[in-house]
Every structure is written in C-alpha cells, then in structure tokens.
Amino acid sequence: MPLVIPVILGSVRSDRQGLRAARFLMAQLEGRGIEAPLVDPAALNLPLLDRMYKEYPKGGAPAVLEDLATLYRRSDAFLVVSAEYNHSVPPALSNTLDHFLEEYAWRPSAIVCYSAGQYGGVRAAMQLRAMLSELGASSIPSLLPIPRIAKALDEAGTAQEEWLPKAARRFLDELVWYAEALKAQRASGTPY
C-alpha cells in the first residue's frame, strides 16, 4: 500500500505564501506515488482549541475533527509547512496540531519552513520541532527552508529556482525512509 503523508499548512492569512510550498510538496510526494492530502486550517475553520478530539465522547466530536482523526490514523508521516510569525509558529498551525495527540504517535514528521526573507523561517522550525516531538511525531533531522518564497515558487507551486527540486528530493528521501521504517515497526507493535 502506498504511504499516506498529509501536508499540514500553517497559515490562514489571505495572502499566505505557504500554499505555494504545500502545492509544490504535494506534487513531489504524489510523483512518488504517495497520497498527500492537504490539511488547510483556512478550509477546516477549526475553532480555537477548547477540547481535544480525544476529550469528546465517542462519536461526539465535530465532523471536521472526526475526518481529520480518520486521516491521521491512516497516515504514515506528516509534512508540516510553516511560516514564521514573530520568530515562532503561526497560531493557526498550533491550533490545528493541538486538537490531536495519539493520532500522531509513532509517525515521523518533516518540517518545511519559509519566509519572505533570507532565513526561510528556521526560527519557527526550531520551536515546531520541539512541539512535534511532544505530540509524538518527532521530526526528521533535516529541514527544508525556503527563503524568499515568492521568488522560489510561483502560485501554482512550481519551482522557479534550480536548487529547490534537488533539495526537496533529498529531504523527501529522508522522510520516506523514516515513514517506511516506522510503518514496519508499527505493524509489529508499539511500546504502548
């Protein structure tokens, strides 16, 4: 069975640039035969976290959370696309991630960060790495920072700079390695 790796987008701003990166990475994953659905907080319109999914009575969670939980439980890894807001994780991304916990367990994550400037969002990525680890979806060692995103990718998510497809290929090779390894381990059982 092909891997399932949701691409979790972190921004809800009307002029967000991360959608370019999400589209680019979804195409890269799909080109490998991987199912890569977009998890877009702007489309999901999740409420601010009051209750985690697991805190609802069985069958009592809002449909949007039930659908996400179903997707996450069949996922093999998570690819998170994050902007950098005030050197930190965007609030929409934090809110989207925080609704779940057990659904992330024993699955790797990978961080794609971006910015309009030269640093590519790496300061947010460092905080996101700690957060993902705490959720149970530890990030792979590599990051894929995309500086000057409006120049690097067009609106359709097509790379405009030569370095990006090559960097993405190596980054995704690493994520797929971890996803396949942990998928095999989950099939034989987890510590708890």
Work out the number of β strands. Answer: 5
Number of domains: 1
Neighbour order of strands in the largest sheet:
2-1-3-4-5
Question: How confident overall, as mean pLDDT?
Answer: 96
Secondary structure: elements and pairs:
Blueprint: E1 7-9, H1 18-30, E2 38-39, H2 41-44, H3 63-73, E3 78-82, H4 91-98, E4 109-114, H5 122-135, E5 139-146, H6 149-152, H7 163-187
Parallel strand pairs: 1-2, 1-3, 3-4, 4-5
What does this structure look like?
- The chain has 192 residues and is α/β, with parallel strands linked by helices.
- It has one domain (7-185): 3-Layer(aba) Sandwich (Rossmann fold).
- Helix content is 41%, strand content 12%.
- The chain contains 7 helices and 5 strands.
- The chain has a 5-stranded parallel sheet, sandwiched between helices.
- It starts with 6 loop residues before the first strand and ends in a 5-residue tail after the last helix.
- The mean pLDDT is 96.
Short description:
This protein has 192 residues and is α/β, with parallel strands linked by helices. The chain contains 7 helices and 5 strands.
Jot down its keywords.
5 strands, five-stranded parallel beta sheet, 12% strand, 7 helices, Rossmann fold, globular, 192 residues, alpha/beta
